[in-house]
């Protein structure tokens, strides 16, 4: 394409009201995500340094335990509600009110389930108290339905402002707690307060839009329809959270809180990379879909380019982090976390398969192979749990990182070799490691 044509295209886009609106919407979303990443990483590291491995390990365990059950409270409604608000704007209050009360019921159900589960753990009274404090915050997640409304109206600016305000407030409180040498329970209370403050900011933003209150609405037929559509997504969300957080729970049960702190410090750095493939895929996949309209060959070629790019970006990040792991852990977390360097140099290589997994998940969604996506996530979670049971008691906390790496390899790459619909994708991923375009 010539420079003249490029300039003409850009000129047309600048004058396209819809394009400008969606561009601004996306920009606000990306800015908020980046701010949350930076603030969460640096404030989180400061909190970890202050608490030390044992208390930070207990804090991480409580968060992981609550997160797994938190997937139930969401009921898989998020994307479904946005879709229905776009398709049926005239029923806005009915959908928002129904989803709101369903989420309230979901949070209460989670609290009941957790009350039934915690007696079978090795938790002491204070640990269980921390868990239920965070679980109480799940009730305020019902106000997320307001975010779904703003998403359906392409008003990410309002959502970004609400979330950024909550993030700034939370970060300042945590910094104050560190400076005043507060006890662990106050950091736990801040986690519950985060859910409350975000809910309040959503409610204020919704009221400022001069919308009518939806809290009095509940439609049983809509509830049945939403739950019918969302239950597979709820189970998928639960499996994903088990996949991501079961390591910390199993380490705590088999080794102790100190080891959870060591592992969590390394994971915090490693998982900080995971926003990169999401942004890359969101940016380039529309062009890949356009290629599909032109020819299947061009479509597969661009998919190959995406997989190759993902692999080598991940390697380019993982390699220096491996070589500098000792220095990074010492610099960021301090001497008390030095054992986390071994975990980091193993766990960071999971990014190669996470990057590939994000890209291939997009392909599975486009091709409507959502069950395959669930199946490989379920496989990865199962392998992770089995390997943790076998390896952690013998080889310690680094074994959990090895289990994560092997489970990611199995779910993202090996799984594709045994499914007829994903064999081509398996070959494309293999070629990606050789920097080849097929």
Q: Rg to the nearest angstrom?
A: 23 Å
Let me know the largest β-sheet. none
Roughly how many Å apart are the termini?
A: 24 Å
Q: What is the number of domains?
A: 2
Extended strand count: 0
Count of helices? 18
Summed over residues and divided by their number, the pLDDT gives a mean of 80
Structural category is mainly alpha
Estimate the global geometry from the Cα principal axes.
globular
Order of helices and strands: HHHHHHHHHHHHHHHHHH
Helix share of residues?
A: over 70%
Strand content: under 5%
- Give the low-confidence spans: 1-22
Q: What does this 3D model show about the protein?
A:
By secondary structure, the chain is mainly alpha-helical. It has two domains: 20-249, no CATH class; 266-433, no CATH class. The chain contains 18 helices and no strands. α2 packs across α7 (156-179), α12 packs antiparallel against α15 and α12 crosses α18. The longest helix has 58 residues, at 17-74. The radius of gyration is 23 Å and the shape is globular. It starts with a helix and ends in a 5-residue tail after the last helix.
């Amino acid at each position: 394409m010539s420079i003249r044509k490029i300039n003409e295209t850009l000129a047309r886009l600048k004058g396209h009201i819809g394009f400008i609106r969606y561009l601004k919407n996306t920009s606000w979303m990306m800015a908020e995500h980046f701010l949350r990443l930076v603030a969460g990483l640096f404030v989180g590291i400061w909190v970890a340094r202050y608490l030390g491995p044992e208390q930070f390990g207990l804090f991480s365990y409580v968060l992981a335990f609550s997160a797994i059950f938190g997937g139930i409270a969401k009921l898989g409604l998020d994307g479904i509600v946005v879709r229905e608000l776009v398709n049926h704007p005239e029923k806005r209050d009915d959908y928002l009110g129904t989803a709101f009360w369903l989420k309230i019921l979901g949070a209460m159900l989670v609290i009941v389930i957790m009350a039934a589960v915690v007696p079978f753990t090795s938790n002491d009274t204070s640990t269980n108290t921390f868990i239920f404090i965070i679980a109480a915050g799940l009730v305020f997640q019902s106000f997320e339905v307001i975010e779904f409304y703003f998403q359906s109206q392409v008003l990410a600016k309002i959502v970004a402002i609400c979330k950024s305000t909550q993030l700034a407030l939370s970060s300042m409180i945590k910094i104050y707690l560190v400076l005043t040498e507060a006890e662990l329970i106050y950091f736990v209370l801040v986690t519950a307060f985060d859910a409350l403050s975000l809910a309040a900011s959503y409610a204020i933003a919704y009221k400022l839009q001069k919308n009518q209150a939806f809290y009095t609405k509940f439609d049983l037929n809509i509830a049945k329809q939403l739950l019918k559509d969302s239950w597979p997504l709820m189970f998928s969300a639960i499996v994903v959270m088990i996949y991501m957080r079961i390591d910390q729970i199993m380490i705590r049960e088999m080794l102790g809180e100190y080891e959870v702190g060591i592992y969590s410090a390394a994971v915090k750095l490693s998982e900080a990379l995971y926003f990169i493939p999401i942004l890359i895929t969101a940016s380039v996949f529309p062009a890949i879909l356009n290629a599909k309209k032109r020819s299947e060959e061009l479509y597969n070629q661009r998919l190959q380019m995406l997989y190759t790019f993902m692999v080598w970006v991940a390697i380019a990040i993982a390699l220096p982090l491996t070589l500098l792991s000792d220095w990074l852990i010492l610099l960021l977390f301090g001497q008390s976390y030095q054992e986390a360097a071994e975990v980091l140099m193993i766990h960071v290589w999971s990014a190669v398969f996470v990057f590939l997994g994000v890209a291939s998940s997009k392909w599975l969604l486009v091709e409507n192979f959502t069950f395959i996506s669930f199946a490989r996530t379920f496989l990865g979670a199962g392998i992770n749990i089995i390997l943790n049971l076998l390896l952690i008691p013998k080889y310690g906390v680094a074994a959990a990182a090895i289990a994560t790496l092997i489970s990611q390899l199995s779910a993202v790459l090996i799984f594709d070799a045994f499914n007829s619909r994903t064999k081509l994708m398996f070959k494309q991923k293999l070629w990606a490691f050789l920097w080849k375009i097929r």
